């Protein structure tokens, strides 16, 4: 398989997963409020959102670096 095509496919899949993660976490944070929200779920959602933003930043950085 062409290495350039493989790189494009990897970037595309990472961008789709990052976008889905950001949208999904936003919806969960809006509508899911269990009784134990502040102690257990909130740190998980915040760390997941930071990871999604980090993936997005890495994707943008790799695109800028390649040009």
Describe this entry's structure for a reader.
This protein is an all-alpha fold and 67 residues long. Helices cover 88% and strands 0% of the residues. The protein contains two helices and no strands. The chain has helices at residues 3-31, 37-66. Helix 1 (3-31) packs antiparallel against helix 2 (37-66). The longest helix is centred in the C-terminal third of the chain and has 30 residues, at 37-66. The radius of gyration is 16 Å and the shape is elongated. The mean pLDDT is 79.
Main traits of this protein?
mainly alpha; 2 helices; 67 residues; elongated
Helices and strands, with pairings:
Elements (H helix, E strand, L loop, with lengths): L2 H29 L5 H30 L1
Structural class: mainly alpha
Mean pLDDT: 79
User: What is the element string, with H for helices and E for strands?
Assistant: HH
Question: What is the helical fraction, as a range of percent?
Answer: over 70%
Distance between the termini: 22 Å
Question: Low-confidence stretches at least 5 residues in length (pLDDT < 50)?
Answer: none
Count the E strands: 0
- The radius of gyration over CA amounts to 16 Å
Tally of DSSP helical segments: 2
Beta-strand content estimate = under 5%
Please outline the major beta sheet: none
- From the spread of the alpha carbons, the general shape counts as elongated
């Amino acid at each position: 398989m062409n290495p350039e095509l493989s790189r494009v496919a990897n970037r595309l899949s990472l961008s789709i997963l990052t976008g889905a993660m950001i949208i999904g976490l936003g919806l969960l944070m809006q509508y899911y409020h269990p009784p134990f929200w502040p102690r257990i779920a909130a740190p998980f959602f915040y760390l997941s959102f930071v990871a999604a933003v980090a993936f997005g930043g890495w994707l943008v950085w790799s695109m800028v670096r390649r040009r």
